[in-house]
Specification:
357 residues; alpha/beta; Aspartate Aminotransferase, domain 2; Aspartate Aminotransferase, domain 1; 7-stranded mixed beta sheet; 4-stranded antiparallel beta sheet; globular
Length: 357
């Protein structure tokens, strides 16, 4: 099998060692989870559920957020407002009630699995709280949330052709919670993304095809998700896949891999490793100060078949350290892969030192 670290998922089969590494760690989910075709579909369903019973004055979302999601929300609601929070300063005291009031909705993002917000869920004089656990799926903050509503996109956590989850911690969601209409865009997304993950498997496992074919399909499938504007029930194939995967704990192997790579990566003046004691980060999180180093690091990694993800482009921060990469270290990878990853990161750092001599 070709080595590739990061990037999109490929189709797994039950005999794959990486599937077995994931399937060995199953947890019991106590809340009632409603499954959707995408994280954005889950988001829309929650907001429509709230609007059915309440008058909403403002929907507050963080400035630092996925541009596809903000565009999607602005397309559907004219009450969007933005608030500032630094997604890397998880210890900063943050009181959203300074600006978000009763009658508002506020979205709190569990950035990278490292954020835990302090609020009183019993307080009646507060906004409705939605927590986004897309980058902290099955973390303790996700499993023990006290928010009014929660959501997560799970396509970046499992080998599925789409998928979002919505839930109300400690209660059942009111029905109906699906939209009964046709959505050709989301169906096309499922078909195209299924083709992408299958082709990627053939490329990595069987040495068939090329990267361009599955990457083009990935891009086309994501474009169809952007075109979609519904919260319909997933088709039976996707629903079954989501139902199967969401209780498989992605964080066990990830924790082991993180420990390995953190022990091996040498300190560098060019980046900071974003981590928090007692929390499970989304991946190996690297924060850069200098944009040129940030870009050079990505170029170097791609040459080594390592694919850092910039989460997210077109965001600005009021801080010096603001160029951010995530590198996946999930159940697809073993100890040898982590040693290779650490070696490449260290090799890049050494080239930076030599270039200054």
């Amino acid at each position: 099998m070709k080595r590739e670290i990061g990037s999109s998922f490929y189709k797994l089969k039950s005999e794959d060692k990486e599937y077995k590494a994931l399937a060995d760690n199953k947890i019991e989910l106590e809340d009632h989870y409603t499954l959707y075709c995408s994280g954005r579909s889950a988001f829309l369903a929650i907001l429509e559920e709230i609007h059915r019973s309440k008058d909403v004055k403002h929907i507050w979302i963080p400035e630092y957020y996925c541009h596809n999601v903000t565009g999607f929300l602005e397309r559907n609601y004219d009450t969007i407002k933005y608030y500032y929070i630094n997604p890397f300063e998880y210890q900063t005291k943050f009181n959203f009630q300074d600006f978000a009031k009763k009658g508002d909705v506020i979205v709190l993002n569990n950035y990278w699995g490292l954020f835990n917000y302090d609020y009183d869920p019993q307080n009646q004089d507060r906004p409705i709280i939605i927590e986004d656990h897309s980058h902290g799926w099955l973390t303790q903050q996700c499993l023990n949330s006290q928010a009014d509503y929660c959501l997560a996109s799970v396509r970046k956590s499992y080998p599925v052709s789409g998928g979002g989850v919505a839930w109300r911690p400690g209660s059942m969601l009111e029905e109906p919670y699906y939209e009964t209409k046709a959505d050709e865009a989301i169906e096309d997304a499922h078909i195209i993304l299924s083709q992408s993950i299958n082709k990627k498997r053939s490329f990595l496992k069987d040495d068939k095809g090329d990267k361009k074919s599955y990457l083009n399909l990935l891009s086309a499938g994501e474009a169809q998700i952007t075109e979609s504007n519904s919260y319909v029930r997933p088709n039976p194939e996707l629903y079954e896949a989501l139902e199967h995967y969401i209780s498989l704990d992605i964080n066990v192997v990830k924790s082991e891999n993180l420990q390995t790579v953190l022990e091996l990566i040498k300190p560098s003046s060019h980046f900071q490793i974003v981590n928090r004691e007692g929390y499970m980060p989304f991946g190996l999180l690297l924060l850069f100060k200098d944009e040129a180093s940030f870009k050079d690091f990505k170029t170097f990694c791609i040459q080594k078949n390592i694919y850092p993800a910039n989460l997210w482009p077109d965001n600005d921060l009021r801080s010096e350290w603001k160029y951010f990469f995530n590198i996946h270290i999930d159940f697809r990878y073993d100890d040898e892969d982590m040693r290779y990853l650490a070696h490449c990161v260290n090799e890049w750092s050494e080239t930076q030192v030599l270039s200054t001599i």
